[in-house]
């Protein structure tokens, strides 16, 4: 284990602890492990998560370690999984649920929107729903239209939910532990293309593993990264790219490729949104590109663009630009024409600089 | 190749529509006391017949007969009558209050009082009901203050839900009454999850789920049965078949199945069909099913056969879709009349005492109503502050909601 001292999130916090190399998968698995060891109310269930340890291996070994009453397989019913989780959370447990792909979430949407999100409100605080619903999100894995979607805007539009999307192993663990500790329901979207490495959008180049990336070094003990705090993934002066998930890495690659000194803001949490970090960056650079993989129209980028123009209007040198997935279902063979990779992002960065 | 005639779509229709003379003589009503009471640990396969009959305790003369009788003491039965009378009088006052504009909406229980009032008596402190909007008897039978219920109806400053919920969507953790969603069926699976949590924790509490005949069509119902069956969850799954879901007759949800109770069979869940207008039968079935849950024997499905004698809600006019006389000739009678007759037959009650009790309860309800109305009604202006609108969305108010609250001036 390397000793590691590093500056985090642009603050002066330093790490002086034994760090372990982890992928996003092992970091998430480790977060479950640490949470279950710490709090016996944490229960983990979903399709294939028990004996097998999940199709992406994020719950591997948990049933063997904590028993089948705390980590178990569920019938193939997302409605049933989330609905049962709502009841368990109301009882006083801390369900950490896996929906196998975010694309499978729709049968459970009513339970998330009308039940989990509103329980505290409608009962005057008498019943609450402290639950985490994890879902692998996004494309880049040849998953076609039913294994590639990015439905985050369907959650950010709902009062009472928190929505989190990490972009690296260290954040994934700290954010997941914060989500588990949170008293309200949290939708935790895991960019599946980042599970095994910091994918920068160059699909035809060799895969980079997390072990070569500084944020693949993870503290094996308990730590939280507070929900509602963004990170500056790359400091820059020319323009701000406000983004999250896989696109954090694509944005950095585009900055390197174009030579445009972009500041890349990794939101990490969409709701609550760290507007302070976003606005400070845009007010500094005067140009802003909002970037996400999800479809453009009514995407979370629209919310960001609206807030940024309203808060930063007099600092802006150019209109806020959005780069996103096209307004089509996620295609299979045309995946890389759909995916907003570094070339498309770079073109728009140049356009923004010329505006 | 044999020629077959063209296909045609079959859409089920109720037997009687407005203007028709209803006739329920085709409904098979077994004699009271005729249905056996199996041991609670009997395998589900051995009691499939109980999903195709009707468990009844009170006969036409008011006697309690058969294996399912004697689950309650005389005092408890007298209290049961009082609970049902209280619910009916409360309903009547609140329906009137709605017509007077003191609230926006109301839903009454007319004809269905026995089900929630009797079921609650089989529960223990700590158990949790996941009710629909037509089980307020659970609250009344558990001693929840009527005045607080009325404050919720009036959305006044003492409404524990701060005016956020539609009237009748009560919530009381202390009284084992889960916050009513207002969405149909969503809570059926939550009760299963709640009961699984009790089992995971090694506690002794059980959950009770409630749904109407119409919303058994929702996927939530089927997911709940899968989960309850798979995990042998300590839950009782109630289906209140009151024949009508607004204008949708029960046949539209039941489809080709003979009864709603039979839905349990595909999941291996023991299933009872009970006379929902018979307080003693409902209680006996509830006691049997809750004992199964407490002994970790798993879920039970109970179909309560009843009739929604009133409208679906204060916004509904059932004369537009069913004959008015249906409720009068409903073959299972009126739950209050039947329990009253039983107590009279037993020499514990009389018509005079009934009238007197009715007057006393009415006075008590009016007193509660006066106190609740003195705090405020929806049209009196004494409603919770808009500030309350922003509370409890999250445990801690995030900055964007603080900004929006400031925008409204709070």
UniProtKB/TrEMBL annotation, chain A:
InterPro entries linked to this entry: THDP-binding (IPR029061), Transketo_C/PFOR_II (IPR009014), Transketolase-like_Pyr-bd (IPR005475), Transketolase_C (IPR033248)
Alphabetically ordered keywords of this record: Oxidoreductase
Cofactor: thiamine diphosphate
GO molecular function per UniProt: branched-chain 2-oxo acid dehydrogenase activity
Cited Gene3D superfamilies: 3.40.50.920, 3.40.50.970
SUPFAM superfamilies: Thiamin diphosphate-binding fold (THDP-binding), TK C-terminal domain-like
GO biological process: branched-chain amino acid catabolic process; response to nutrient
EC number: 1.2.4.4
Domain Transketolase-like pyrimidine-binding stretches: 22-197
Domain of life: Bacteria
Pfam families, per database record: Transket_pyr, Transketolase_C
Record PANTHER family: 2-OXOISOVALERATE DEHYDROGENASE SUBUNIT BETA, MITOCHONDRIAL, 2-OXOISOVALERATE DEHYDROGENASE SUBUNIT BETA-RELATED
Protein name in UniProt: 3-methyl-2-oxobutanoate dehydrogenase (2-methylpropanoyl-transferring)
UniProt organism field: Sedimentitalea nanhaiensis
TrEMBL record, chain B:
Residues covered by region (Disordered): 1-25
EC numbers: 1.2.4.4
Cofactor(s) listed in the protein's UniProt record: thiamine diphosphate
Domain Dehydrogenase E1 component per the UniProt entry, residue ranges: 84-377
Keywords: Oxidoreductase, Thiamine pyrophosphate
Coiled coil: none
GO molecular function terms noted in the UniProt entry: branched-chain 2-oxo acid dehydrogenase activity
Cross-referenced Pfam families: E1_dh, OxoDH_E1alpha_N
Domain of life, source organism: Bacteria
GO BP annotations listed: branched-chain amino acid catabolic process
Every 2-oxoisovalerate dehydrogenase E1 alpha subunit N-terminal domain range: 5-44
Reactions catalysed: N(6)-[(R)-lipoyl]-L-lysyl-[protein] + 3-methyl-2-oxobutanoate + H(+) = N(6)-[(R)-S(8)-2-methylpropanoyldihydrolipoyl]-L-lysyl-[protein] + CO2
Function: The branched-chain alpha-keto dehydrogenase complex catalyzes the overall conversion of alpha-keto acids to acyl-CoA and CO(2). It contains multiple copies of three enzymatic components: branched-chain alpha-keto acid decarboxylase (E1), lipoamide acyltransferase (E2) and lipoamide dehydrogenase (E3).
Family: Belongs to the BCKDHA family.
PANTHER family membership: 2-OXOISOVALERATE DEHYDROGENASE SUBUNIT ALPHA, MITOCHONDRIAL (PTHR43380:SF1)
Protein name as catalogued: 2-oxoisovalerate dehydrogenase subunit alpha
Organism whose genome encodes this protein: Sedimentitalea nanhaiensis
């Amino acid at each position: 284990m390397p000793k590691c001292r590093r500056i985090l999130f642009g603050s002066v916090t330093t790490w002086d602890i034994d760090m372990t190399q982890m992928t996003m998968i092992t970091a998430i698995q480790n977060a479950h492990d640490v949470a279950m060891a710490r709090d016996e109310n944490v229960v983990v269930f979903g399709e294939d998560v028990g004996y097998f340890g999940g199709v992406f291996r994020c719950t591997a070994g948990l049933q063997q370690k904590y028993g089948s009453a705390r980590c178990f397989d569920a019938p193939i019913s997302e409605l049933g999984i989330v609905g049962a989780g709502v009841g368990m959370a109301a009882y006083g447990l801390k369900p950490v649920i896996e929906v196998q792909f975010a694309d499978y979430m729709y049968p459970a949407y009513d339970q998330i929107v009308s039940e989990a999100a509103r329980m505290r409100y409608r009962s005057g605080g008498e019943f609450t729903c402290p639950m985490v619903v994890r879902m692998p999100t996004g494309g880049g894995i040849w998953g076609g239209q039913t294994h590639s979607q990015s439905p985050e805007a369907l959650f950010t539009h709902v009062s009472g939910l928190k929505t989190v999307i990490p972009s690296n192993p260290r954040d994934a663990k700290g954010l997941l532990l914060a989500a588990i500790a949170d008293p309200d329901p949290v939708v935790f979207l895991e960019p599946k293309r980042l599970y095994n490495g910091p994918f920068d959008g160059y699909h035809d180049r060799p895969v980079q593993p997390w072990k070569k990336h500084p944020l693949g070094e993870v503290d094996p003990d308990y730590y939280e990264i507070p929900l509602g705090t963004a990170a500056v993934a790359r400091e820059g002066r020319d323009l701000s790219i406000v983004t999250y998930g896989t696109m954090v890495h694509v944005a950095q690659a585009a900055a390197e490729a174009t030579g445009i000194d972009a500041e890349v803001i990794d939101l990490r949490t969409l709701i609550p949104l760290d507007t302070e970090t976003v606005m400070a960056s845009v007010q500094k650079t005067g140009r802003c590109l909002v970037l996400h993989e999800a479809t453009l129209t009514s995407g979370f980028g629209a919310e960001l663009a609206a807030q940024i123009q309203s808060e930063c209007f007099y600092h802006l040198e150019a209109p806020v630009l959005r780069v996103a997935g096209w307004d089509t279902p996620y295609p299979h063979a045309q995946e890389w024409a759909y995916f907003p990779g570094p070339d498309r992002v770079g073109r728009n960065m140049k356009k923004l600089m010329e505006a | 190749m044999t020629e077959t005639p063209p296909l045609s779509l079959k859409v089920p229709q109720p037997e009687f529509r407005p203007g028709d003379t209803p006739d329920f003589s085709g409904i098979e009503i077994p004699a009271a006391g005729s249905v056996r009471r199996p041991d609670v640990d009997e395998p589900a396969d051995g009691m499939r017949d109980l999903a195709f009959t009707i468990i009844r305790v009170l006969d036409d003369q008011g006697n309690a007969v058969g294996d399912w009788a004697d689950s309650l003491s005389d005092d408890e039965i007298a209290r049961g009558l009082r609970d049902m009378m209280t619910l009916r009088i409360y309903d009547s006052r609140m329906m009137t209050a709605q017509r007077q504009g003191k609230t926006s909406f109301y839903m009454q229980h007319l004809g269905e009082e026995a089900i929630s009032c009797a079921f609650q008596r089989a529960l223990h402190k700590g158990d949790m009901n996941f009710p629909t909007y037509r089980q307020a008897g659970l609250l009344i039978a558990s001693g929840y203050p009527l005045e607080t219920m009325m404050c919720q109806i009036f959305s006044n400053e003492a409404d524990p839900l701060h005016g956020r919920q539609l009237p009748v969507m009560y919530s009381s953790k202390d009284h084992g009454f889960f916050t009513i969603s207002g969405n149909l069926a969503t809570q059926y699976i939550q009760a299963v999850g709640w009961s699984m949590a009790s089992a995971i924790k090694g506690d002794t509490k059980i959950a009770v789920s409630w749904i109407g005949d119409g919303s058994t069509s929702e996927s939530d119902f089927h997911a709940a049965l899968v989960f309850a069956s798979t995990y042998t969850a300590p839950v009782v799954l109630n289906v209140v078949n009151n024949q009508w879901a607004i204008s949708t007759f029960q046949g539209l949800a039941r489809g080709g199945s003979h009864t709603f109770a039979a839905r349990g069979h595909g999941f291996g869940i023991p299933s009872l069909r009970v006379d929902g207008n018979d307080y003693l039968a409902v209680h006996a079935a509830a006691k049997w099913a809750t004992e199964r849950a407490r002994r970790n024997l798993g879920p039970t499905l109970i179909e309560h056969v009843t009739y929604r004698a009133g409208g679906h809600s204060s916004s509904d006019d059932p004369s537009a879709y069913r004959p008015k006389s249906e409720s009068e000739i409903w073959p299972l009678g009126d739950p209050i009349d039947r329990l009253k007759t039983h107590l009279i037959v037993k020499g514990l009650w009389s018509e005079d005492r009934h009238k007197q009790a009715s007057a006393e309860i009415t006075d008590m309800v009016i007193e509660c109503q006066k106190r609740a109305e003195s705090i405020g009604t929806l049209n009196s202006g004494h409603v919770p502050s808009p500030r309350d609108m922003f509370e409890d969305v999250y445990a801690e108010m995030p900055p964007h909601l603080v900004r929006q609250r400031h925008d409204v001036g709070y």
